[in-house]
Amino acid sequence: MAFTVLALGGDGIGPEVLEASLKVLDTVARSARIPIDLEEDLLHGAAWDAYGVLIRPETLERARRADALLVGAVGGPKWDDIVIEGGPEDQDGLMKLRRELDTFACIRHARAWDALIDRTPYLPGRVHGADIIVMRELCAGAMFTRTRGMDTTKSGERRAYDLNEYTDEQIRRFARIGFEIARRRTGRVVSVDKSNVFIAGKLWREAVDDVGRSEFPDIELTHLFADNAAYQLACRPADFDVVLADNLFGDLLSDQAGAISGSLGMLPSACLSDLPRTGRVQGPAIYEPVHGSAPDIAGQGIANPVGMILSVAMMLDYSMGAVKTARRLEAAVDRALASGYATRDLGGTHSTAEMTDAVIREFRSL
To answer: In 33-149, where does DSSP find H-type helix?
Structure first.
């Protein structure tokens, strides 16, 4: 049976990098003899302009039926002030999609590319070989809480609040996927919290620790406070393997980890609701670059497509079970960079299309 992919370009440079990834996916699927059933739809601002909603019920239904989703990027000043009745997820088409599919485990991969070492803030010996997975819990915490608002105190002062709330099971299910990722790598996990200050952080540490001791005794677990984790990640990035963090800290630390890659345009992600010990992910998963919609460069053909292309590699790995083909695509990206191809964010002059074609040529040569 064909593997069903729902492609959602979104806004800004999203459609451009998505187009690039679909060109790569077509090449890769033909080479690996993977039949693809591709569907396309609109998300967030593009959907609002066309239909007056940030995501249609029809789109959500297509997403539930898909094996995987490829998402470009969403958002922009044009749609920032839209207010929809409902919770925080109703204000953002991508957040709504994540919540509806319950893709709570976001795997954000950052690695040091030899060809881009001079684009990082690190000395070569400090960052060489760094390869980090930041796991961000994606469907709870401060980003999704309904305990939020802005009001005025009796003294007339404005007050705003967003509750960072987690249940024990929300933390445990997320931790299990993080530990499973570590089993596929070097078996080391750093869990990040602020248990010295926040009650939610205390529950986070207790739940992660219990899952690690009772279900994953083979994995080395270290706990770090979030501020110290950020410092250590900056000082010694090559010492980290898998980092577990809540929705807020994961958002911050995954961007910081991106410094080792030379640009946020290099970072892919996979958003899952399960990860079996063997075999591929069951149910729809979302694959998207970490970067935003960059409306300032949209339509100029200069966006870096690599984060989106590497998201395809993650899809090959987790959802398709085509692990060797995924590694081959990653190697093609490495070779394209080594041969001198670089978009403007990487200090080069190559266009989105030229970078994409270079990756395809290298893939075919492997």
So the answer is: 45-51, 57-65, 93-101, 124-127
Q: How far apart are CA 192 and CA 242, in angstroms?
A: 11
- Taking the mean position of all CA atoms in its chain, how far away is CA 205? 23
Taking alpha carbons only, the member of 71, 66, 68, 46 closest to residue 56 is 46
Give φ, ψ of 147 to 5 degrees: -85, 80
Predicted pLDDT at 1: 84
- Looking at residue 312, the DSSP 8-state letter turns out to be H
Task: Tell how far CA 251 is from the center of its chain.
Answer: 9
Tokens of 141: 């915490």
User: What DSSP line would sit under 332-366, residue for residue?
Assistant: HHHHHHHTT---GGGT----HHHHHHHHHHHHHH-
**Is the predicted pLDDT of residue 291 greater than 90, yes or no?**
yes
Helix (H, G, I), strand (E, B) or coil at 159: strand
Q: Which residues are CB-contacts of 232 (< 8 A; sequence separation ≥ 6)?
A: 224, 239, 240
By DSSP bridging, strand 36-41 and strand 158-162 are unpaired
Across 259-298, b (16+ Cβ under 10 Å) vs e yields bbbbbbbbbbbbbbbbbeeeebbeebbbbbbbbbbbbebb
Kindly report, residue by residue over 38-50, the tens digit of the pLDDT. Answer: 999 999 999 999 9
Contacts of 235 (CB under 8 A, 6+ apart): none
Tokens 């709870």 sit on residue: 140
Provide the whole-model pTM: 0.95
Reduce the DSSP state of residue 154 to 3 states and report it. Answer: coil
Helix (H) or strand (E) holding 23: helix 14-32
Q: How confident is the prediction for the chain on average, in pLDDT?
A: 96
Q: Tokens 């539930």 belong to which residue?
A: 64
CA angle 35, 277, 318 (to 5 degrees): 30
- DSSP assigned state of 298: T
pLDDT, residue 124, reads 78
Distance CA 297, CA 133 (A): 28
C-alpha triplet 132, 177, 310: angle, nearest 5°:
45
Q: Is the dihedral of CA 225, 228, 234, 239 positive or negative?
A: negative
**Cα(336)–Cα(40) distance, rounded to whole angstroms?**
28
Taking the C-alpha atoms of residue 187 and residue 184, their distance in angstroms, rounded to an integer, is 7
Q: Are 272 and 105 in contact (CB under 8 A)?
A: yes
